[in-house]
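tmp note - NAD(P)/FAD-dependent oxidoreductase
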Amino acid sequence: MSTTERPRILIVGGGYVGLYAAMRILKKMRYGEATVTVVDPRSYMTYLPFLPEAAGGNVAPRNLVAPLRKTLKQAEVLTGSVTGIDHARKVATIQPAAGDSYELPFEYLVVATGSVSRTFPIPGLAENGIGMKTVEEAIGLRNHVMAQLDKAESTTDPEVRRKALTFVVIGGGFAGIETVAEIEDMARDASKLYKTVSRDDMRFVVVEAANRILPEMGPDLGLWTKEKLEERNIEVYIETSMDSCVDGHVMLKNGMEMDAATIVWTAGVKPNPVLANFGLPLGPRGHVDTAPTLQVQGFDYVWSAGDNAQVPDLAAGEGAWCPPNAQHACRQAVVLGDNVISGMRGFPQKEYKHKNLGAVAGLGLHKGVAILFGKYKLKGRPAWWFHRLYHGAMVPTFNRKVRVFTDWTLAMFLKREAVGLSQMENPQLPIQEVTPPTKPVEAAEPAADKELASK
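out:
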C-alpha cells in the first residue's frame, strides 16, 4: 500500500458499483487531485448475468470477470476486507488477505459491498446447497452436473442413478430460471455422448415460493416461460418451498419428496452483513439508506448504491425503491462517480432518475424472453438475440467484450464442450493419492537411559 498526502476516495467493494464508479471517478478526476483506493476480498469484478451461461458452458469463466488491477491501473487496489469505519476520525479498518489488520484514512467514502445469498436455517442446505453468486459457484455447478452424468453412466444401481440425475433449483427469479434452463440445455446435449444416460432419465425441478416465476417480466411472460420450461420436461412448482434437504433428500412444503444430488439455491439476496459495522443508517432490510443523490442520509462525504443500498426510485414515484439488479447498479455507479467528483469540488449533487430499459432472460441456446421499455415483449430466438446483444455490450472493458463475442461466435460453428473438471475442486488430491505415508518420528532417548543401556 502506498501513502499519499492527497485526499483519498475509499471505495469499499469491487463489484458493479465499485468498478464502474472507480472508472468514472478516474476518468473525471484531474491528475493528482485524489487517490482512489478500491478494497475487495477478490481481485476481480464478476459480471453476474453471465453466471448461468458459464454454468451451461457458453461463456468461459475467465471472460466474465474483469481484473481490478488491470482495469483500474490508476487506482490502488487492496485485496482484503473493510471490517469497520470510524467516522469521527475518518479511518477504515482493513483486514488484508494476509497479515495483520491496519487503519486507512480517507476523505470520501463509497460503500459498494453488494449482496450475498439470502438463506434460511433449512436442515441440510449448508451441506448440500450450491449458490449462484460467484464465478466459482457457477463453474463448480457445471463440473458437478457433469460429474453426476459420469456417476450415472458408471453404475447399475437404480437409486444411485435416480439421485445423480435429479436436479433441483430453489428460486424462480432470473438466477433460478436462467440457471435451470442452461444446465438442462447442457445436460441434454451432453447425454448424447453417453450410452446409458438419456434426457428421459433426468429430472429437473424448480421450486418457487411466490405465485409465479420471473415476476419482473409480468404475469403473461412469466406464464409463457413456465409453459416453455414444462414442454422441456422441467417441473415447476409455485407457491411452495423447501423444508429440508438432509443428505440430498429434498422435502417440499407441498408434500413432495425426492432424492437429488444437485440442489441449487437462488432464493434471493440480502445486503452484505458487514454493513452493520460501518456506522451508517440502515433500512428495515439492512440496506444503506440513501438520498436520491446516492449520498447516505446524514453524511455529505459518503455515497452508496447497488444491491446494498436503499435508493429511492424517482421514476416509479414516492415510496418506491430501485430493485437490486445489474441495470440499476451500472447506471447508479455513473451518477455516483460524478457526484463524488462534484462533492470533492464543492458543486451541487445530481439525483439518480432512470428510464426503465426493460428486462431480458436467457432460457438456454436460442431461447429467451424479454420486455423492452415496459411494453415491447419478445419471446424465443429474438429475445435470446437481444439478451446476448445487451449483456455483451454491458460487460465491462473492451477486452472482455471481444472475448465474450468470440466465445459466442465460435459456438455457432463448434459444438459445446461437454466435459466437467470435477478434480478442480480438490487440486491436492492427485499428489495426496501417490504420496506414501510419512513414518512416525521416534522420540529421542534421554541421555541417562542411553548411559544405563551401555552398562
